[in-house]
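Hi U.,

Before I forget, here's the chain from the pilot set. I'm dumping it here mostly so it's searchable later in email.
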Amino acid sequence: MTGMNKNLLLLVCLVLALFLIVGCGTDTADVTDEDAVDEEPTDDEAVAEDPLESFIIARSTDANTLDTGYAYYEGEIDLMYHIYEGLVRFADDDLNVEPALALDWDVSEDGTVWTFNLREGVQFHDGSEFNADAVEFSFMRILDEDHPYYGLGDQGLAYMDWLLGSALAEVRAVDDYVVEFELVEPFGPFLTYMGMYSQYIVSPTAVEEHGEAFASNPSGTGPFMFSEWRRDEYIVLEKFDGYWGDQPAIQSIVWKVVPDESTRLMELQAGQVHAIKSIAPAQLDTIANDENLRMMQKPGANLFFAAINHEAEPFDDVRVRRAVMHAINFEELVETLYEGLGTWAKTPMPPTIFGFYDDIEPYEYSVETAVSLLEEAGYPEGFDTTLHVFAESRGYIGRPVDAAEIMSSYLGQAGINAEVIVNEWGTHRSLLREFEHDIGFVGWFDVPHPNNFLNALLLRAVDSHYRPDELSALSDQALSSYDRAEQAQYYREMQEISHRDVGMIPIAHSDYTAVVLSDISGFELDSLGNVLAHDVSY
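Structure:
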């Protein structure tokens, strides 16, 4: 770190520390742990910690909840991987798992009962003991409507329920350190899903003590514990000295809310923060030309696509759907819309996911081929159609209306006259769900697992009337297998069939981005889009 940056960081962190001391407990929007509410720190305690050991991350939004069972938005998920842990954790960007709170596991011959042997001597942040009862509690409070803490605080969607609600029959503590998960039937993604934050373990003692307020008084087993939350300003996590694993090198993480992307970058360049999450295309050159900054970028686990109504003429003819694909210059379209922060979607599945079919040949951009296919399908003069688009920017596309106008221009060159109709989001979703569209833009983000893109988009959450039996059969075979290589083969076949049939028009994956000061090591951006500071050092 440069001398200037060190001095700036020292000054900023000292000011922040004094601000926290003076302001603690004075604002009704603030949330701290109970000790911090009852007792303000002394001057000696405030300066005992080296302020350079605080790592500050600026991001666009705050959290709504710190309850890992109900976390759903970006402002929450990053923190879940620091506060909580699961029985397993991801070992790499391919989402292979390794032991975490479980030492090992096995599955019954029929593939329906998974048994986990748990790590002993682990404590939650509140001092209570981690054991099999805590695991059972964490799952059943989400999945069992008769559980006394089911639906705690009416926090909305529980992501665990989306992933495993229909797959899990029961979770039961066999003894203090053995827990069983009984599935309705073999479920291929089970072990992968167990590595997701929504399956992480909470302290039953803390839930029982705080009730609905657990959302702002979290307690897990992770390397960092909750310290303070000033709404819409920052959240502070402190190193948990009782952590069972390797201790972090930093004392605390400050998750600072800086909505404006330009301000985030300026604060990073000034050394006021150590890292930022999410950048704008216009900032790429500035970052590339600053030797004090290191850019991190990965294709996102998301998809921006156009849904085709397969029952609306003339799109019930595969030749017309293929003509559409040939009429669009996707490479140029993605570069124009994303300006270096997007990846062309060759299939519905992001290229970072295991089972991605690398060998698929994209439809060649050729107006001549498109016109020939339309003539063959009986439309030598082309035809009129509609292209529905939502007005608002979303995580997978920043300029949806521009995307529609550009695509309409491409289609027009082949004789497909697509009228662009702009809707507000609620109206737009209703139109597509009721199949009142010809072509309509939509998007998706989820766990980077093939099931969450191919099954979900082609068979479960589609707006297309496209649901061939052969795809359903392949999906069922993949879901019933625990062999990754076997699953990958089924998923490659699904991509090939969808590509052949033009089940949808995949367009792009919006890239995940983060920037960190170049002399900081151990800061990571993973394939889920999370920023991880477990191993940060200066």
